[in-house]
Sequence to fold (227 residues):
Amino acid sequence: MDFSPDFLKKNLQKLEDRLLGKIHKRIEPIQKLMSYYRCALMGVETKFKVLNEEFSFLHERNPIESIKTRIKDFESIRKKLRQRRLPITIDSIEKNIHDVAGIRVICPFIDDIYMLADCLLCQDDITLLERKDYIAQPKESGYRSLHLIIEIPIFLHDKKRYMKVEIQLRTIAMDFWANLEHRLRYKKDIDKELVKKISAELIECAETSASLDLRMKNIRDDIENKR
Ligand code: 0O2
Fold:
């Protein structure tokens, strides 16, 4: 056997190339899928920006305060599939994980949320797959938002592909609340009694915040002579 440094170096290099080739082969389809989701997000974001532009021209105010987009990281996707005992494959991700592509639209007022959702859903290339109204029926935690799972086509060089996108629409106040509550949910090593106390306080804050949203909308209506 040849154990000379040159021989070992050459073979180690071969092994490394083969391993990298294998990793690349497995990763490439996932990267491709994630890029399709990014395209879908671009499409949905543009649709909201167009609505915002048109509305601000017609009514001299913006129904959208800000838009955030995110692609779920692969570790979270894998964790979700594993928890549900589902296969970790490209097909399974597309079929079972509806929030790989997520867009959050933050609005000043509650009625902006429903107006934007209606305007988006009546567009003929958008298909609604699921609608959860956590504003009409808040979660036990106090969480409020309107959730839509939609399907949108993306046009690639040789084909049209339908992609799912999760849309969360909420007011500035709902977003403020959800961000703080999210920190509590993901905080480890925190005393159980303290979690209970904070959760109860958060429920109260959610109600206060909902009533503030309503009062602000009423004030806006008064200013605009809508009431
Ligand atoms: P992240 O990190 O925000 O993505 P799903 O979990 O989507 O398969 P589910 O439970 O039916 O199924 O979805 P649901 O209820 O529509 O909510 C999904 C997302 O809404 C969550 O995503 C959160 O972003 C948000 N959400 C739902 N409930 C709460 C809540 O009580 N508090 C806060 N702060 N956010 C909430 P993820 O994947 O949990 O997390």
Observations:
- The first strand starts at residue 66 and ends at 71.
